[in-house]
Structure formats: structure tokens, C-alpha cells
Amino acid sequence: MPPKVKKSASKDEDSKKNKPKKNQANEDAESESNKEELQPPISANDVYQSTSELSKQEPVSSPEETVQITYEEPVLTSIIVENYEGDKDKGLFEGFGKAFYKGGSIYEGEFHLGIMHGKGTYIWPNGIIYEGDFSNNEITGYGTYRWCFNTGEPSEWSTYRGQVLKGKRHGHGVFKSGNSSVIYDGEWNMGKRYGKGKMIYDTKGLSYYEGDWINNKKFGWGIRHYPSGNIYEGMWVNDVRHGEGTMRWFDKNQTYTGQWENGIQNGLGEHNWYLSRVEMTQYSLRNSYFGNFKNGKRHGQGTYLYANGTKYEGSWQNDVKHGW
Fold first, then answer.
1. Going along 125-167, which residue ranges are E strands?
2. Of 83, 147, 168, 276, which has the most beta carbons under 10 Å away?
3. What is d(CA 186, CA 171) in angstroms, rounded to the nearest whole number?
4. DSSP classification of residue 102
5. Mind listing the pLDDT tens digit for each residue in 99-121?
6. DSSP structure string for 169-202
7. Could you tell me if 101 and 82 are in contact, meaning their C-beta atoms sit under 8 angstroms apart?
8. Can you say how many angstroms the Cα of residue 286 is from the centroid of all Cα atoms in its chain?
9. pTM for this predicted structure
10. 134 to each of 108, 192, 292, how far by Cα in Å?
11. DSSP state of 134
12. How far is it, in rounded angstroms, from Cα 141 to Cα 185?
């Protein structure tokens, strides 16, 4: 009986045998990649239909804003000269000289007809220094105040450089606090921040207010950049958000535009929650509420529009839907 002949493997079988095995990690990665390619773009119908919460309020007044940043200008309480060293003309102080006043103050600079007039430096007994213009025995023109108080290094002194009138900061000037990072650059009226100005609260210049001031308070229109990165732009009254304004919470992707009262939402307004950008478009999916607010909460009549197109229109009470 002839021996059996073993059949040769088919080409397909040879191919399978010779084909290198895939690494398990590569197979897993390829599988995940295919899953991602198969996932459809996000749409409004994919968004979970729930009522979004309001973002946490920025403080009405943050700690950095409560730092003592304004020093009063000292007054020329006594101009009785006890001793004088310098030029004279016909018995009067004239030209350059140095006067020692009753009470301990010292002036060194220009005189005319016996009084301080021109450029000079005045030092008070407590260490406060003014250097700049004098007119008819008054601090008027342009100059620099330094609140030294006879202590600390020059870097710790508070300073003002700018326009002055009758001893007061008046016009444009820059104040730098010696005991904090605060800098104010703007307009003044008789010693107080008044008009347009910018107050910087940190060393990097990221936290600041720029806008209107009245009597050292934010009053009128202004922009506040908070340490968190959030921004408010709108009206202010007595240092708080009050009137029409817009808040952008960049850390929460939320915005509110509407009425404010004593620092919080109160009155008619619109709040938006940006959820995700729709693929291949410049538009974002969002939930939105338009209606009444009370003490920072949705309260009264309002409409809530969900990102998937459905909406609730009716009454709200303390941030919760309450009937129709």
C-alpha cells in the first residue's frame, strides 16, 4: 500500500502562520482610536436637561480693597520763622534759603518777597516730606509727597507724584502705597480720588479697577478685574456693583447681564451657562435664563431655555421653579 501524501498548507494558511502577531497594547490603542472616530459630534440633544446653578458671587469688597491707601496731606500749620539761613534782599528772604519754623518744620528752597515761592522741599516734624512747587507760601503746582514718618526704608514709604492745589492732591497724579501693592493713577479733587482713574491691587497688575471715582469711592461706570480672573463691567455706587452691568465668570463659563443692587443680581437680567462648543461651528451650546432676580437668586417670573431647545417659562422662588 503506497504511503499517504501529506497535503501542503494552503496559501491562506501559510499567510496566517507567517503573519506577525499584534502587540496587545497596540490593539487596545487602535480599538480606542476607532471608538473616537465613531463618536458623533455633540449636539443640543446630548446635553443633560437640568437647571444650571448660579455661579458664586465675587465679594462686594475684597480684602485687598480695604487696605488703607490714602494718607491725608499735612497742612502748613505754622509759618513763623525761628531761624533763617540764605539770601536776602532789603531785609526780606529772596532767592535760595533754608527756614526753620516754629513747631519743628523745615523748608529749603526758593523765596520771594519773604515767603516760599518757587521750587523747594518742606519737611514736617513727623517725617512727611513735600518736594515741588510753591506759590505765595502755599503748596501749589506740581510735586511729590512722601509719607515717611521717620521710619522704614524708602521702598516702604507711601508716595504721591502729581498736581497739587493749596496743599491738596488736585488734578492728575499717581499714589503708591508703602504698606501694600496698591497704586492709583488718575484724577484727584482736593485730596480725594475723583474722576477717571485706575486702581491696581497686586504687584502683577492683574487685579484692578478702572473707571469713575467720586470722593475716594468707585462711583459711575467702571471695569473690575478680580484676582480670580473674573470681570465685571458696568455701574458702581459707593464702591459696590449697582445698576446695569455684566459679570463674566471665566472659571465657570458663565455670564450675567442685567441689574445689580448692593453688589448682587437684583432686578431684571439674563444669565448664561456655556456648556460646549458645537463641532465645526463658532457657536457654543448654552443654557440661559431671562427674568427676575432677587438677592442674587432667580425669583419671580422668568424663562429658562435649555441647550436642547426645550424651555420652562413661569414663576421662580429662591432659585427654584415654582409653578407657572
1. 128-135, 138-147, 158-165
2. 147
3. 8
4. T
5. 999 989 999 999 999 999 999 99
6. EEEEEEEE-SSSS-EEEEEEETTEEEEEEEEE-S
7. yes
8. 26
9. 0.79
10. 11, 20, 57
11. E
12. 18
Residues 6+ away with beta carbon under 8 Å from 229: 206, 250, 251
The rounded distance, in Å, linking the Cα atoms of 266 and 240 is 13
How far, in Å, CA of 29 to CA of 8, rounded?
A: 37
Contact 30, 24 (CB under 8 A): no
| DSSP string computed for 215-267 | TTEEEEEEEEE-TTS-EEEEEEETTEEEEEEEEEETTTTEEEEEEEETTEEEE
How does DSSP assign 24-83, residue by residue? HHHHHHHHHHHHHHHSPPP-GGGS---PPPPPPPPPSS-GGGSS---PPPP------EEE
Cell numbers at residue 296, please? 442674587
Query: Which cell numbers hold the place of 7?
Result: 497535503
Give the cell for residue 122. 518742606
Length of the chain equals 324
Grid cell digits, residue 218? 468707585
Indicate the domain borders of the chain. Answer: 74-166
Strand pairing report for 115-123 and 128-135: antiparallel
Q: What is the pLDDT of residues 32-89, one digit of tens each?
A: 444 333 333 334 343 444 566 777 777 766 666 665 556 788 888 777 899 999 999 9
CATH fold of the domain at 74-166: 2.20.110
Q: Which of 107, 106, 104, 103 is nearest to 117 (CA)?
A: 107
For residue range 170-220, list pLDDT tens digits in order. Answer: 999 999 988 888 999 999 999 999 999 999 999 999 999 999 999 999 999
